[in-house]
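Onboarding guide, step 5: your first structure request.
Type a short instruction followed by the sequence, for example:

Predict the 3D structure of this protein.
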Amino acid sequence: MALAFYVVFPLVFGFSTSVVPEGVLVMTDINRCLDFVLKLFFAFGIAFEIPIATVALVWTGATDLAALN
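The system replies with structure tokens like these:
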């Protein structure tokens, strides 16, 4: 989530404000912004937990390395 907060959000918000046509004000809806932020937090959190879950499954014997190939 730190990667999303410190790297991805500045890039996304910077891009979204740079593509606004001249003379148009950016007026974000706080509910949609919060939904977007929470979805990205969960997506990045899950994506970075997959390797840990895989190692835990192999370590506990629920699966083996040959089954993962």
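Each response can be followed by summary notes, for example: The two ends are 28 Å apart (CA to CA).
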